[in-house]
Amino acid sequence: MAFIKGIWRILLAIKDGLVLLFLLLFFGLLYAALTFSPQPAMIGSGALVLKLEGTIVEQPRRESPFDLITGNGSPVGEYGLWDVVHALETAVEDRKVKAVVLDLDGFMGGGQVAMARVGEALDKVRAAKKPVLAFATAYTDDGYQLAAHASEVWLNPIGGVMISGPGGSQLYYKGLIDKLGVNAHVYRVGTYKSFVEPFIRTDQSPEAESAMQAVYGAVWQNWRDEVGRARPKAKLAAYVADPVAVSRAAGGDLAKAALSAGLVDRLGDRTAFGARVTKLAGVDEEEVPGSFKQIKYEAYAAAYPIREDGQIGVVTVAGDIVDGEADPGSAGGETIAKLIHDALSEKDLKALVLRVDSPGGSVLASEEIRSALLDAKARGLPVVASMSNVAASGGYWVSTAADRILAEPSTITGSIGVFGILPSFENSLAKIGITTDGIKTTPLSGEPDLAGGFSPEFDALAQAGVEDVYRRFVGLVAKARKMPPQRVDQIAQGRVWDGGTARQLGLIDGFGSLDDAVAEAAKLAKLDPAKARPVFIEEKPDYFTQLLEQYSRSDEEDRSVSLPRDWLGKQAWLRRNFAMQAVGDVRAMLMGSAIRADCLECRGALPQPVNAAKARKLIDYLLEW
Question: Is 293 a catalytic residue?
Fold first, then answer.
């Protein structure tokens, strides 16, 4: 009896503890709700500090309320490209902003096209006679592309500049698939449609290699040209051609090597850098060495948000295009189509701009988005497509609805091709003594038979279905670009193109940023381009989520703990995705859309943040499987 009473006391204690925890959480949230104010804080004078702990993206992901409460979200921040650009361009005329500081210690990239647009905004700040200072322990490609636009580039003496250029290796699973006995059934159209190559080859095909060599060569040249214009004194060619020789000439000191090559202006730690900024922005009240008057980017962006009263609606297709609904950061076909239809009925829009930063994905979802854009055109609204870092495969499919397509020279686009892939496990099961048998009333009974293998009839129909979708894709492009289908087929075949070549081939109409696309849409709608303003069509977070997001910003400083600072760690972090890629590829093969318009190589041009929750789900899925 005493034992039972002891257990009962323990259960009561647990119950009381849970009730107390719930009450504390309830009253904490109640207090936060009562004290929460959407009004931004007052902005004082000082240096506008962009402490970028993570990546710059077209459309930041939105953490779930549960992750915001428990702190289980991603340790890597995501900053909206157009929020960053707007803040910088607002600072140009703001007398309170004495200088701009780029704290790039934790910056992990954002794509070449996006970095070029931020660079333009930094140039405007400098043209207004306001200094721009950059600091980092290690600069990599995207970070240095930004820093090159600064008036002063600082480097930690124990750091370095690591410029690697585009490119890298892909995972190929053919050897593993053979060992496991998995049969990868691939249905594709296009000589260059290399997305399926990891499942049927152990290396890159010569066709895929030649295509990507041309694209990466053009994109790399564009990077060097931009950095060279922004920072003419940098001896970039010799530095990237033989970094080992440059390092040895500096006695193995990477920081001094960067200084001697003109890539940076000053070597100094964070305290010395802060002391320099105090001369421009003033000394902070805190008696801490190197502290200066700061205007934090988050507070500044909240105080001066992008206006929402424009008549040019901007629809963003960012990340993988997937079936059904999806949160920001992925392009759910149903979600985006609903956003377009709701905006058409609720807003006084005169035109649409489709902003694409996607390597593609589901054909069905891509067509759903394209159909919604056609509904807008049927109402008399012109549509202009604006391509960012990547607009390939499904990203190009959705763009065919546009009246005009604008891209940048470094945009990766094209990849007009289709494929399907499904696995079967008859050989794997046979290795452990499992076989299959049954009755068929038609050639397609029980197909696709993942356990027993596919019938020839199913394989033939699947290939025919993929070929039919490819013909539709070619037809859409031919109609949109006013080309003969035969000509489209010649430049399609799943091949990717850089923006410059795409313009020559007629796949795009010209070069231009989102701002240019908005102006072009205004012209087509017979509006004054100088007065036309965009309004971003996206789902707004509810009041509760806004509250949690605001309070979660108080933990921004903790985010930096998870990110490497030295160049070796930063380079490793940027290449860390191979494990996640493998798990994601397996999941896509088993659970993803069967017929896809997707681009394998294009994914390297996009920032690849780690979503902690997604990582756990993928790993759990693989273990369960």
Answer: no
pTM given for the model: 0.86
Which residue is catalytic, options 362, 366, 388, 393?
393
Q: Identify whether 193 is a catalytic site residue.
A: yes
List the alpha helices (DSSP H) in 36-161. Answer: 65-70, 81-93, 112-127, 141-147
Question: Catalytic one among 51, 98, 130, 193?
Answer: 193
Answer yes or no: are the C-beta atoms of 477 and 385 closer than 8 Å.
Answer: no
Per-residue model confidence as pLDDT tens digits over 381-406: 999 999 999 999 999 999 999 999 99
Which residues, listed in sequence order, are joined to residue 152 by a DSSP beta bridge? 133
Do the strands 312-318 and 534-537 form a parallel or antiparallel pair, or are they unpaired? parallel
Residue 482 to residue 153: CA distance in whole angstroms: 48
- Characterize 284-314 residue by residue with b for buried, 16 or more Cβ atoms within 10 angstroms of its Cβ, and e for exposed: beeeeebbbbbbbbbbbbbebebeeebbbbb
Cis bond before residue 448 (omega within 30° of 0): yes
Own/partner pairs, 240-244, CB within 8 angstroms, 24+ separation: 240/163, 240/165, 243/162, 243/163
Partner residues linked to 189 by β-bridges: 418
Residues 121 and 99: beta-carbon distance below 8 Å? no
Question: Residue 259 pLDDT more than 50?
Answer: yes
